[in-house]
Design a protein that fits this description.
mainly alpha
C-alpha cells in the first residue's frame, strides 16, 4: 500500500475533515481514503454531454424530440409563446 503526507493543510480544512469523519463514524485517515477513492473512481469513465443527459432523463417521461448540444453558444431564455 502507498502512503503520502499532506503538508501545509489549513487548520479549518483539518477541522472540517475531522467533523466529517465523526459524522460517518470513522477515523480521519479512513475518511480521507474514502474521499480520495471517490474522487478518482469515475476518472476514466466517459461523461456524456448535458443535452444527452437531459434527453435520457426525459425519455422515460415521453420526450421524443432531440435535445441539441449547445457547445459554445450562449444560453437564451425559453420562448413559451410558440
Amino acid at each position: 500500500m502507498a502512503q503520502f503526507v499532506v503538508r501545509d493543510l489549513e487548520d479549518a480544512v483539518k477541522a472540517r475533515l475531522k467533523r466529517r469523519a465523526e459524522r460517518h463514524g470513522r477515523s480521519m485517515e479512513e475518511e480521507v481514503r474514502d474521499i480520495l477513492r471517490n474522487a478518482v473512481k469515475s476518472e476514466n469513465q466517459a461523461v456524456s454531454q448535458l443535452g444527452s443527459r437531459i434527453a435520457a432523463r426525459f425519455a422515460r417521461k415521453g420526450l421524443r424530440r432531440e435535445v441539441p448540444e449547445m457547445r459554445g453558444q450562449r444560453g437564451r431564455p425559453a420562448d413559451f409563446d410558440r
